[in-house]
Amino acid sequence: MKTTFTRLLIAGVLAVAGWLSWSESQLAAEVADARQAVATFDYDDADSWLPRAALSDYLPGERRRLSDDIRIVKAGVAYWLGRYDAVTADTNQQAADADVLLATANAAFRLNQRDPGAGTAAAQRLDGVLQAYAAALKAAPRHVEAAYNYEFVARLRDAVARSQGKVAQPPVAGGPVMSGDLPGGATIHGSPGAPPPDAKTEELKTIAPMEYGDREAQPLPTPGGRRERKG
Predict the structure, then answer these.
(1) Which long-range contacts link 61-64 to residues 24+ away (Cβ below 8 Å)?
(2) pTM listed for this prediction
(3) Which of 62, 107, 120, 190 is the most buried (most CB within 10 A)?
Protein backbone atom coordinates (compact mmCIF):
# COMPACT_ATOMS: atom_id res chain seq x y z
CA MET A 1 0.00 0.00 0.00
CA LYS A 2 2.83 2.38 0.89
CA THR A 3 4.62 1.60 -2.37
CA THR A 4 1.49 2.32 -4.40
CA PHE A 5 0.91 5.63 -2.63
CA THR A 6 4.53 6.64 -3.22
CA ARG A 7 4.25 5.84 -6.91
CA LEU A 8 1.02 7.80 -7.22
CA LEU A 9 2.62 10.76 -5.46
CA ILE A 10 5.63 10.69 -7.79
CA ALA A 11 3.34 10.40 -10.82
CA GLY A 12 1.31 13.39 -9.61
CA VAL A 13 4.44 15.49 -9.09
CA LEU A 14 5.71 14.59 -12.56
CA ALA A 15 2.33 15.40 -14.10
CA VAL A 16 2.29 18.83 -12.48
CA ALA A 17 5.88 19.47 -13.55
CA GLY A 18 5.03 18.41 -17.10
CA TRP A 19 2.02 20.73 -17.21
CA LEU A 20 4.04 23.67 -15.89
CA SER A 21 6.77 23.03 -18.45
CA TRP A 22 4.20 22.84 -21.25
CA SER A 23 2.59 26.09 -20.10
CA GLU A 24 6.01 27.76 -19.97
CA SER A 25 6.86 26.61 -23.50
CA GLN A 26 3.51 27.85 -24.81
CA LEU A 27 4.11 31.29 -23.35
CA ALA A 28 7.64 31.36 -24.74
CA ALA A 29 6.24 30.51 -28.19
CA GLU A 30 3.71 33.33 -27.86
CA VAL A 31 6.49 35.76 -27.00
CA ALA A 32 8.48 34.65 -30.05
CA ASP A 33 5.43 35.00 -32.32
CA ALA A 34 4.69 38.46 -30.90
CA ARG A 35 8.24 39.67 -31.48
CA GLN A 36 8.17 38.33 -35.04
CA ALA A 37 4.87 40.13 -35.64
CA VAL A 38 6.32 43.41 -34.39
CA ALA A 39 9.39 43.01 -36.59
CA THR A 40 7.17 42.48 -39.66
CA PHE A 41 4.63 45.22 -38.76
CA ASP A 42 1.84 42.67 -38.29
CA TYR A 43 -0.20 44.24 -35.50
CA ASP A 44 -3.56 42.53 -36.14
CA ASP A 45 -3.29 40.12 -33.19
CA ALA A 46 -1.78 42.58 -30.71
CA ASP A 47 -4.93 42.65 -28.57
CA SER A 48 -4.69 38.89 -27.98
CA TRP A 49 -1.22 39.12 -26.40
CA LEU A 50 -1.94 38.94 -22.69
CA PRO A 51 0.85 38.94 -20.06
CA ARG A 52 0.51 36.16 -17.50
CA ALA A 53 2.67 34.62 -14.82
CA ALA A 54 4.96 31.75 -15.75
CA LEU A 55 7.05 29.22 -13.83
CA SER A 56 10.27 31.11 -14.60
CA ASP A 57 8.90 34.18 -12.80
CA TYR A 58 9.33 32.39 -9.48
CA LEU A 59 12.80 30.95 -10.07
CA PRO A 60 15.78 32.66 -8.39
CA GLY A 61 18.18 34.76 -10.41
CA GLU A 62 18.10 37.97 -12.39
CA ARG A 63 16.27 37.41 -15.65
CA ARG A 64 13.48 39.06 -17.57
CA ARG A 65 10.08 37.55 -16.99
CA LEU A 66 8.10 36.27 -19.96
CA SER A 67 5.14 38.34 -18.80
CA ASP A 68 7.34 41.45 -19.04
CA ASP A 69 8.32 40.43 -22.57
CA ILE A 70 4.67 40.47 -23.60
CA ARG A 71 4.15 43.85 -21.94
CA ILE A 72 7.19 45.29 -23.71
CA VAL A 73 5.96 44.03 -27.07
CA LYS A 74 2.45 45.43 -26.56
CA ALA A 75 3.86 48.76 -25.39
CA GLY A 76 6.09 48.87 -28.47
CA VAL A 77 3.16 48.26 -30.81
CA ALA A 78 1.08 50.98 -29.16
CA TYR A 79 4.03 53.38 -29.23
CA TRP A 80 4.79 52.97 -32.92
CA LEU A 81 1.10 53.27 -33.77
CA GLY A 82 0.98 56.58 -31.92
CA ARG A 83 -1.28 55.28 -29.12
CA TYR A 84 0.74 56.88 -26.35
CA ASP A 85 -2.18 57.03 -23.93
CA ALA A 86 -2.47 53.24 -24.09
CA VAL A 87 1.22 52.83 -23.21
CA THR A 88 1.07 55.05 -20.16
CA ALA A 89 -2.25 53.57 -19.01
CA ASP A 90 -1.49 49.85 -19.43
CA THR A 91 2.13 49.81 -18.27
CA ASN A 92 2.62 49.09 -14.58
CA GLN A 93 4.77 51.87 -13.17
CA GLN A 94 5.98 49.59 -10.38
CA ALA A 95 7.55 47.11 -12.85
CA ALA A 96 11.23 46.47 -12.31
CA ASP A 97 12.01 45.86 -15.98
CA ALA A 98 13.85 48.85 -17.44
CA ASP A 99 12.48 48.42 -20.96
CA VAL A 100 8.90 48.54 -19.66
CA LEU A 101 9.67 51.78 -17.83
CA LEU A 102 11.50 53.16 -20.86
CA ALA A 103 8.47 52.55 -23.08
CA THR A 104 6.33 54.49 -20.60
CA ALA A 105 8.81 57.37 -20.50
CA ASN A 106 9.01 57.56 -24.30
CA ALA A 107 5.22 57.62 -24.56
CA ALA A 108 5.02 60.34 -21.90
CA PHE A 109 7.49 62.45 -23.88
CA ARG A 110 5.48 62.04 -27.09
CA LEU A 111 2.27 62.96 -25.27
CA ASN A 112 3.97 66.10 -24.02
CA GLN A 113 5.03 66.99 -27.56
CA ARG A 114 1.47 66.82 -28.80
CA ASP A 115 0.74 69.93 -26.75
CA PRO A 116 4.03 71.85 -26.78
CA GLY A 117 4.41 74.97 -24.76
CA ALA A 118 6.91 77.25 -23.14
CA GLY A 119 7.70 78.74 -19.79
CA THR A 120 7.18 77.31 -16.33
CA ALA A 121 4.09 75.19 -17.08
CA ALA A 122 5.73 73.37 -19.99
CA ALA A 123 8.91 72.84 -17.99
CA GLN A 124 6.92 71.28 -15.16
CA ARG A 125 5.35 68.80 -17.57
CA LEU A 126 8.81 67.83 -18.76
CA ASP A 127 9.83 67.30 -15.14
CA GLY A 128 7.38 64.38 -15.06
CA VAL A 129 8.99 62.93 -18.20
CA LEU A 130 12.40 63.25 -16.56
CA GLN A 131 11.15 61.32 -13.53
CA ALA A 132 9.93 58.55 -15.84
CA TYR A 133 13.37 58.24 -17.45
CA ALA A 134 14.97 58.35 -14.00
CA ALA A 135 12.84 55.34 -12.99
CA ALA A 136 14.16 53.42 -16.02
CA LEU A 137 17.73 54.34 -15.12
CA LYS A 138 17.15 53.27 -11.53
CA ALA A 139 16.09 49.84 -12.77
CA ALA A 140 19.08 49.62 -15.17
CA PRO A 141 21.80 52.24 -14.47
CA ARG A 142 23.74 51.29 -17.62
CA HIS A 143 20.76 51.53 -19.99
CA VAL A 144 22.23 53.62 -22.84
CA GLU A 145 18.95 54.66 -24.47
CA ALA A 146 17.37 55.72 -21.19
CA ALA A 147 20.49 57.73 -20.26
CA TYR A 148 20.58 59.48 -23.64
CA ASN A 149 16.87 60.32 -23.54
CA TYR A 150 17.19 61.61 -19.98
CA GLU A 151 19.97 63.99 -21.00
CA PHE A 152 18.02 65.08 -24.10
CA VAL A 153 14.85 65.86 -22.13
CA ALA A 154 16.86 67.61 -19.41
CA ARG A 155 18.38 70.00 -21.97
CA LEU A 156 15.01 70.50 -23.65
CA ARG A 157 13.44 71.26 -20.28
CA ASP A 158 16.04 73.95 -19.61
CA ALA A 159 15.47 75.47 -23.07
CA VAL A 160 11.70 75.50 -22.54
CA ALA A 161 12.09 77.15 -19.14
CA ARG A 162 14.19 79.92 -20.71
CA SER A 163 11.86 80.44 -23.69
CA GLN A 164 9.68 83.01 -21.83
CA GLY A 165 6.44 82.37 -23.66
CA LYS A 166 7.85 81.26 -27.01
CA VAL A 167 7.20 77.70 -28.18
CA ALA A 168 10.53 75.90 -27.86
CA GLN A 169 9.49 72.37 -28.87
CA PRO A 170 7.77 71.33 -32.12
CA PRO A 171 4.58 69.22 -32.12
CA VAL A 172 4.66 65.72 -33.58
CA ALA A 173 2.13 63.66 -35.51
CA GLY A 174 -0.02 61.10 -33.75
CA GLY A 175 0.83 57.96 -35.66
CA PRO A 176 2.49 56.45 -38.74
CA VAL A 177 1.32 57.09 -42.28
CA MET A 178 0.92 53.86 -44.22
CA SER A 179 2.70 53.81 -47.56
CA GLY A 180 1.73 50.62 -49.31
CA ASP A 181 2.49 47.63 -47.10
CA LEU A 182 4.94 49.52 -44.88
CA PRO A 183 4.45 52.50 -42.57
CA GLY A 184 6.09 55.72 -43.63
CA GLY A 185 8.60 57.53 -41.47
CA ALA A 186 10.57 56.07 -38.59
CA THR A 187 9.70 52.55 -37.40
CA ILE A 188 11.06 50.09 -34.86
CA HIS A 189 13.86 49.38 -37.35
CA GLY A 190 14.89 53.03 -37.60
CA SER A 191 14.45 55.70 -40.27
CA PRO A 192 13.97 54.65 -43.91
CA GLY A 193 16.99 54.86 -46.17
CA ALA A 194 17.30 57.29 -49.06
CA PRO A 195 19.90 58.43 -51.59
CA PRO A 196 22.30 61.15 -50.46
CA PRO A 197 20.63 64.56 -50.88
CA ASP A 198 23.34 65.88 -53.23
CA ALA A 199 23.66 62.76 -55.39
CA LYS A 200 22.39 62.77 -58.97
CA THR A 201 20.06 59.98 -60.01
CA GLU A 202 22.13 59.04 -63.04
CA GLU A 203 25.20 58.56 -60.82
CA LEU A 204 23.53 55.89 -58.69
CA LYS A 205 24.29 52.33 -59.69
CA THR A 206 22.25 49.30 -58.72
CA ILE A 207 24.21 46.08 -58.32
CA ALA A 208 22.15 42.91 -58.78
CA PRO A 209 23.33 39.29 -58.49
CA MET A 210 23.90 37.43 -61.75
CA GLU A 211 21.51 34.72 -62.87
CA TYR A 212 22.64 31.13 -62.51
CA GLY A 213 23.07 30.65 -66.25
CA ASP A 214 25.15 33.79 -66.59
CA ARG A 215 27.41 32.66 -63.78
CA GLU A 216 27.93 29.29 -65.45
CA ALA A 217 28.89 31.01 -68.71
CA GLN A 218 31.67 32.98 -67.06
CA PRO A 219 35.20 31.67 -67.72
CA LEU A 220 36.82 29.82 -64.87
CA PRO A 221 39.49 31.78 -63.04
CA THR A 222 43.01 30.80 -64.03
CA PRO A 223 45.33 29.70 -61.25
CA GLY A 224 47.97 32.22 -60.40
CA GLY A 225 51.65 31.57 -60.36
CA ARG A 226 53.47 30.30 -57.33
CA ARG A 227 54.21 33.05 -54.91
CA GLU A 228 57.77 33.19 -53.68
CA ARG A 229 58.20 33.34 -49.96
CA LYS A 230 60.11 36.32 -48.72
CA GLY A 231 62.42 36.26 -45.75
Answers:
(1) 64/97
(2) 0.65
(3) 107
